[in-house]
Write a structure and sequence with these properties.
CATH topology of the domain at 60-209: Rossmann fold
Helix content: 25-40%
CATH superfamily of the domain at 60-209: Vaccinia Virus protein VP39
Distance between the termini: 32 Å
Radius of gyration: 16 Å
Structural class: alpha/beta
Shape: globular
Number of helices: 7
Strand order of the largest sheet: 5-4-3-6-7-8-9
Strand content: 25-35%
Length: about 220
Protein backbone atom coordinates (compact mmCIF):
# COMPACT_ATOMS: atom_id res chain seq x y z
CA UNK A 1 0.00 0.00 0.00
CA UNK A 2 2.24 2.79 -1.24
CA UNK A 3 -0.50 5.22 -2.28
CA UNK A 4 -0.15 8.33 -0.05
CA UNK A 5 -3.93 8.38 0.44
CA UNK A 6 -3.66 5.19 2.49
CA UNK A 7 -1.36 6.67 5.14
CA UNK A 8 -3.82 9.37 6.18
CA UNK A 9 -3.32 12.66 7.99
CA UNK A 10 -5.09 14.38 10.86
CA UNK A 11 -8.32 12.52 11.58
CA UNK A 12 -7.24 9.64 9.31
CA UNK A 13 -3.71 9.32 10.74
CA UNK A 14 -2.08 6.34 12.45
CA UNK A 15 -2.64 7.96 15.86
CA UNK A 16 -6.38 8.21 15.19
CA UNK A 17 -6.46 4.55 14.13
CA UNK A 18 -4.60 3.56 17.31
CA UNK A 19 -7.30 5.26 19.37
CA UNK A 20 -9.97 3.29 17.50
CA UNK A 21 -8.16 0.01 18.15
CA UNK A 22 -7.88 0.85 21.84
CA UNK A 23 -11.64 1.46 21.97
CA UNK A 24 -12.20 -1.94 20.34
CA UNK A 25 -9.95 -3.57 22.95
CA UNK A 26 -11.90 -1.82 25.69
CA UNK A 27 -15.11 -3.26 24.21
CA UNK A 28 -13.74 -6.80 24.40
CA UNK A 29 -12.17 -7.48 21.01
CA UNK A 30 -9.19 -9.70 21.79
CA UNK A 31 -8.07 -11.24 18.47
CA UNK A 32 -4.74 -9.55 17.76
CA UNK A 33 -4.82 -10.34 14.03
CA UNK A 34 -8.21 -8.63 13.71
CA UNK A 35 -7.06 -5.60 15.70
CA UNK A 36 -3.87 -5.27 13.66
CA UNK A 37 -5.78 -5.49 10.40
CA UNK A 38 -8.22 -2.78 11.46
CA UNK A 39 -5.31 -0.60 12.61
CA UNK A 40 -3.48 -0.93 9.28
CA UNK A 41 -6.43 -0.82 6.89
CA UNK A 42 -7.34 2.68 5.57
CA UNK A 43 -11.07 2.73 6.32
CA UNK A 44 -11.28 6.31 5.05
CA UNK A 45 -10.89 5.20 1.41
CA UNK A 46 -14.11 3.17 1.70
CA UNK A 47 -16.29 6.22 2.39
CA UNK A 48 -16.91 9.46 0.51
CA UNK A 49 -14.16 12.05 0.90
CA UNK A 50 -16.55 14.33 2.78
CA UNK A 51 -16.87 11.67 5.51
CA UNK A 52 -13.18 10.70 5.67
CA UNK A 53 -12.60 12.64 8.90
CA UNK A 54 -15.22 10.39 10.59
CA UNK A 55 -13.87 7.10 9.22
CA UNK A 56 -12.19 6.07 12.50
CA UNK A 57 -15.13 6.86 14.73
CA UNK A 58 -16.80 3.69 15.99
CA UNK A 59 -19.95 4.33 14.00
CA UNK A 60 -21.70 3.22 10.81
CA UNK A 61 -21.51 5.68 7.90
CA UNK A 62 -23.52 6.01 4.68
CA UNK A 63 -21.96 4.66 1.47
CA UNK A 64 -24.81 5.45 -0.94
CA UNK A 65 -27.65 3.35 -2.34
CA UNK A 66 -29.33 3.38 1.08
CA UNK A 67 -26.50 1.26 2.53
CA UNK A 68 -23.89 1.78 5.26
CA UNK A 69 -20.39 0.70 6.16
CA UNK A 70 -20.73 -1.15 9.46
CA UNK A 71 -19.22 0.34 12.60
CA UNK A 72 -15.71 -0.97 13.27
CA UNK A 73 -16.76 -2.77 16.46
CA UNK A 74 -19.35 -4.83 14.58
CA UNK A 75 -16.88 -5.67 11.80
CA UNK A 76 -14.32 -6.71 14.42
CA UNK A 77 -16.85 -8.71 16.46
CA UNK A 78 -18.19 -10.58 13.44
CA UNK A 79 -14.70 -11.28 12.10
CA UNK A 80 -13.47 -12.50 15.48
CA UNK A 81 -16.51 -14.78 15.85
CA UNK A 82 -16.02 -16.18 12.35
CA UNK A 83 -12.34 -16.91 12.96
CA UNK A 84 -13.01 -18.74 16.22
CA UNK A 85 -12.16 -22.35 15.43
CA UNK A 86 -10.06 -24.12 12.76
CA UNK A 87 -8.46 -21.98 10.00
CA UNK A 88 -10.87 -20.98 7.24
CA UNK A 89 -10.31 -21.94 3.61
CA UNK A 90 -13.51 -20.86 1.84
CA UNK A 91 -15.64 -18.02 3.18
CA UNK A 92 -18.88 -16.74 1.69
CA UNK A 93 -19.64 -13.07 2.34
CA UNK A 94 -23.24 -11.97 1.80
CA UNK A 95 -23.37 -8.23 1.19
CA UNK A 96 -20.08 -6.90 -0.19
CA UNK A 97 -21.14 -3.29 0.37
CA UNK A 98 -18.15 -0.98 0.03
CA UNK A 99 -15.71 -3.91 0.44
CA UNK A 100 -14.44 -3.02 3.91
CA UNK A 101 -15.43 -6.32 5.56
CA UNK A 102 -13.81 -8.23 2.68
CA UNK A 103 -10.63 -6.20 3.10
CA UNK A 104 -10.50 -6.83 6.86
CA UNK A 105 -11.01 -10.57 6.41
CA UNK A 106 -8.88 -11.15 3.30
CA UNK A 107 -5.44 -11.72 4.92
CA UNK A 108 -6.99 -13.92 7.62
CA UNK A 109 -8.54 -16.62 5.38
CA UNK A 110 -7.57 -18.41 2.18
CA UNK A 111 -10.36 -17.26 -0.15
CA UNK A 112 -13.51 -15.14 0.00
CA UNK A 113 -16.55 -15.41 -2.29
CA UNK A 114 -18.45 -12.14 -1.94
CA UNK A 115 -21.98 -11.43 -3.24
CA UNK A 116 -23.58 -8.00 -3.64
CA UNK A 117 -26.99 -7.19 -5.14
CA UNK A 118 -26.23 -3.53 -6.03
CA UNK A 119 -23.95 -3.23 -9.06
CA UNK A 120 -22.74 0.29 -8.24
CA UNK A 121 -21.49 -0.82 -4.83
CA UNK A 122 -19.92 -3.97 -6.24
CA UNK A 123 -17.88 -2.10 -8.85
CA UNK A 124 -16.67 0.39 -6.23
CA UNK A 125 -15.65 -2.44 -3.89
CA UNK A 126 -13.73 -4.20 -6.66
CA UNK A 127 -11.82 -1.00 -7.36
CA UNK A 128 -10.93 -0.41 -3.70
CA UNK A 129 -9.69 -3.95 -3.11
CA UNK A 130 -7.65 -3.86 -6.30
CA UNK A 131 -6.01 -0.62 -5.10
CA UNK A 132 -5.18 -2.33 -1.80
CA UNK A 133 -3.66 -5.35 -3.54
CA UNK A 134 -6.27 -7.76 -2.17
CA UNK A 135 -6.34 -10.69 -4.59
CA UNK A 136 -8.11 -13.54 -2.82
CA UNK A 137 -11.68 -12.22 -3.16
CA UNK A 138 -14.00 -13.36 -5.94
CA UNK A 139 -17.07 -11.20 -6.53
CA UNK A 140 -20.55 -11.91 -7.84
CA UNK A 141 -23.57 -9.72 -8.55
CA UNK A 142 -26.53 -11.62 -7.16
CA UNK A 143 -29.03 -12.39 -4.43
CA UNK A 144 -26.96 -13.17 -1.35
CA UNK A 145 -29.84 -14.85 0.47
CA UNK A 146 -29.48 -17.70 -2.04
CA UNK A 147 -25.80 -18.14 -1.30
CA UNK A 148 -23.38 -19.29 -4.02
CA UNK A 149 -24.33 -22.88 -4.75
CA UNK A 150 -21.67 -23.58 -7.37
CA UNK A 151 -18.91 -22.73 -4.87
CA UNK A 152 -20.47 -24.46 -1.82
CA UNK A 153 -19.85 -25.86 0.71
CA UNK A 154 -18.17 -23.12 2.75
CA UNK A 155 -16.45 -23.48 6.09
CA UNK A 156 -17.40 -19.91 6.95
CA UNK A 157 -20.29 -17.60 6.00
CA UNK A 158 -20.63 -13.98 7.14
CA UNK A 159 -23.77 -11.94 6.43
CA UNK A 160 -23.83 -8.12 6.48
CA UNK A 161 -27.62 -7.66 6.49
CA UNK A 162 -30.39 -8.86 8.78
CA UNK A 163 -32.83 -11.59 7.79
CA UNK A 164 -36.10 -12.10 9.68
CA UNK A 165 -35.05 -15.73 10.07
CA UNK A 166 -31.78 -17.43 9.14
CA UNK A 167 -31.92 -18.37 5.42
CA UNK A 168 -32.12 -22.14 4.95
CA UNK A 169 -30.10 -21.81 1.74
CA UNK A 170 -27.12 -20.48 3.71
CA UNK A 171 -27.36 -23.19 6.36
CA UNK A 172 -27.43 -25.81 3.61
CA UNK A 173 -24.22 -24.41 2.09
CA UNK A 174 -22.24 -24.74 5.32
CA UNK A 175 -19.59 -27.44 5.59
CA UNK A 176 -19.92 -29.74 8.59
CA UNK A 177 -18.27 -27.83 11.48
CA UNK A 178 -18.51 -24.66 9.40
CA UNK A 179 -19.74 -21.49 11.08
CA UNK A 180 -22.23 -18.84 10.04
CA UNK A 181 -22.24 -15.32 11.49
CA UNK A 182 -25.58 -13.65 10.76
CA UNK A 183 -27.82 -10.93 12.21
CA UNK A 184 -31.46 -11.99 12.39
CA UNK A 185 -34.76 -10.62 13.66
CA UNK A 186 -37.13 -7.73 13.16
CA UNK A 187 -36.04 -4.08 13.22
CA UNK A 188 -35.21 -3.06 16.77
CA UNK A 189 -34.96 -6.69 17.91
CA UNK A 190 -32.07 -8.04 15.85
CA UNK A 191 -29.55 -10.42 17.38
CA UNK A 192 -26.15 -11.42 16.04
CA UNK A 193 -25.95 -15.22 15.83
CA UNK A 194 -23.08 -17.67 15.52
CA UNK A 195 -24.31 -20.95 14.09
CA UNK A 196 -22.09 -24.02 13.71
CA UNK A 197 -23.21 -26.94 11.56
CA UNK A 198 -22.66 -30.33 13.17
CA UNK A 199 -23.18 -33.87 11.91
CA UNK A 200 -26.54 -33.78 13.67
CA UNK A 201 -28.12 -30.33 13.53
CA UNK A 202 -26.80 -26.88 14.39
CA UNK A 203 -25.36 -25.17 17.46
CA UNK A 204 -26.53 -21.57 17.93
CA UNK A 205 -25.09 -18.86 20.12
CA UNK A 206 -26.40 -15.32 20.54
CA UNK A 207 -23.58 -12.77 20.43
CA UNK A 208 -25.68 -9.73 21.29
CA UNK A 209 -28.07 -7.10 19.92
CA UNK A 210 -27.27 -5.38 16.61
CA UNK A 211 -28.87 -3.08 14.05
CA UNK A 212 -28.40 -3.90 10.35
CA UNK A 213 -30.10 -2.94 7.11
CA UNK A 214 -32.54 -5.70 6.05
CA UNK A 215 -31.43 -8.61 3.88
CA UNK A 216 -33.20 -7.99 0.58
CA UNK A 217 -33.63 -10.57 -2.18
CA UNK A 218 -33.13 -10.03 -5.89
CA UNK A 219 -30.69 -7.78 -7.73
CA UNK A 220 -31.14 -4.05 -8.12
Amino acid sequence: MTDPRFAGIGMTSARTRDRLVQRLRDQGIANLAVLDRIRNLPRHIFVDEALASRAYEDTALPIGFGQTISQPYIVARMTEALLEGPPLRKVLEVGTGCGYQSAVLAPLVERIYSIERISGLLERAKERLKELGVRNVRFKLGDGSEGWKSMAPFDGIIVAAAALTVPEELLAQLEVNGRLIVPAGTEGQQQLLRIVRREQGYERRVLGPVSFVPLVGGVG
